[in-house]
Structures are given as structure tokens and as C-alpha cells.
Specification:
The protein is of the alpha+beta class. It has two domains: 70 residues, P-loop containing nucleotide triphosphate hydrolases (Rossmann fold, 3-Layer(aba) Sandwich); 33 residues, no CATH class. The strands form two sheets. Strands 1-2 form a two-stranded parallel ribbon.
């Protein structure tokens, strides 16, 4: 996360939204996790910054760290996910690979309203 290196003298509250997301991910990584949970990592970020955050997420999975993302931005989620799990009222109602989910747009509309 080279942008954080450039801003290492700034406090966290002085960082832009994408840099704050990367800082949060970096802080989580200091604990050496096997699993990282991210809740809406794209929320409020410009599309180019979302791409940067998702690139960091993709690099985590390449190192063997599992990542669970709760995300409403399907483009962002699909760029890093291996599986889609849809929940409704706390229950899993659908699970599929990205390819299977994308190949059934009717089911996607039914589940997500998109």
C-alpha cells in the first residue's frame, strides 16, 4: 500500500476515504489473520479508489488470506470474489460461484432486485 507510506506522517483522520480503508486493512493485517472481514469497503469511495482497495483485497487472497466481504457494489465484489452468498433476514438463501451467478441474471434479479 504505497500511498500509506507517502502519508505515514499523517494521522488516520487526516487521510482520504480510500487511504483510511487501506489503513484499516493494514491494521488488521498486523495481527496476522487467516481471515479478514470487510463491511462495505467501497462505501463512499470514488470508482478509481474502489479499484485500488479491491486490488489490495485481491493481493491478500493471493497470499492465502481469506477475505469475507459484505458489499452492495456488485462490480467491486465480483472483481475479487470467488463465490457469492446472498442472505435474507440472517439466513443464507443462495450460494454460487461468480460464473454461475452471472450466468443466471433472472435469479440475480430475483435475489437482489438488480
Amino acid at each position: 500500500m504505497p500511498r500509506l507510506r507517502e502519508r505515514r506522517h499523517n494521522r488516520g483522520d487526516q487521510l482520504a476515504g480510500g487511504d483510511q480503508q487501506m489503513l484499516a486493512i493494514g491494521r488488521a493485517l498486523l495481527l496476522g489473520p487467516k481471515l479478514v472481514l470487510l463491511d462495505e469497503p467501497s462505501d463512499g469511495l470514488a470508482p478509481t479508489v474502489v479499484d485500488q482497495v479491491m486490488a489490495v483485497v485481491k493481493s491478500l487472497t493471493a497470499t492465502g488470506i481469506s477475505v469475507l466481504i459484505v458489499e452492495q457494489d456488485l462490480r467491486a465484489a465480483f472483481s475479487v470474489a470467488g463465490r457469492v452468498v446472498v442472505m435474507s433476514k440472517g439466513q443464507i438463501v443462495h450460494e454460487a460461484s461468480i460464473a454461475a451467478f452471472r450466468s443466471d441474471p433472472g435469479r440475480a434479479r430475483e435475489l437482489l432486485g438488480v
